[in-house]
Write a structure and sequence with these properties.
Helix content is 27%, strand content 19%. It is of the alpha/beta class. The chain has a single domain, classed as Alpha/Beta hydrolase fold, catalytic domain (Rossmann fold, 3-Layer(aba) Sandwich), CATH 3.40.50.1820. It has a seven-stranded mixed sheet, with helices on both faces.
């Protein structure tokens, strides 16, 4: 009996100043880029990515200054979209990805889709529903912990002022701030249905 390879692998892309750390599940199938909201990190997507199975290649990226990715002095939508496009190109995914943006990253996902080929843009979460963790099972609450960092928010303050054309198809999956953590299997099923 041979040991099974790990389903999730962690990778780093870029130089020390613009390093982007990401996790990857699967090697074939429709690529899905999973973008966390500000003050969270890529781990918020682990339960959903594990549910997607081999039909998808899931890539969860730490935005600059989050998780293990290098902090930057500024993180404009265009510059970050370019960096993400270079990462996607390096991964040789071969198909236009579905881009999932949580919270503030929904704007980033739309900006990425304005400049680069995408299959669809999916938005998750909202401004600030109250209380945020209602309905999230205890086992998944560890993936919904925001880091209090006002300096980090200052780096991203320009996101609200940058226009996005939203040329791509935008789909909303689930209500509330963490629908992907309330029911990861159900969210993965709805994600599979995006054609």
């Amino acid at each position: 009996m041979h040991p099974q390879p790990p389903r999730r692998t962690t990778h780093a892309y870029g130089t020390p100043k613009n390093l982007l750390v990401h996790d990857r599940w699967g090697g074939f199938g429709r690529p899905v880029l999973l973008l966390h909201g500000l003050r969270y990190d890529r781990t918020m997507w682990w339960p959903v990515a594990a549910e997607l199975g081999d039909d998808f290649t899931a890539v969860a990226v730490d935005l600059p200054g989050h998780g293990q990715s290098a902090a930057r002095d500024r993180s404009g939508l265009r510059l970050l979209a370019h960096d993400l496009a270079m990462l996607v190109h390096r991964l040789d995914l071969r198909r236009a990805p579905i881009v999932v943006g949580h919270g503030e990253s929904a704007r980033f996902a739309a900006s990425f889709a304005d400049r680069y080929a995408t299959h669809a843009v999916i938005t998750v979460g909202g401004a600030s529903p109250d209380p945020l963790l209602d309905g999230v099972p205890e086992a998944y609450r560890q993936f919904a912990v925001a880091r209090p960092d006002p300096a980090l928010l200052e780096v991203y303050h320009g996101w609200c002022g940058e226009p996005t054309g939203r040329r791509s198809r935008n789909v909303r999956l689930g209500e509330g701030h963490f629908p992907h953590l309330r029911d990861p299997a159900g969210f993965a099923t709805r994600l599979r249905a995006v054609r």
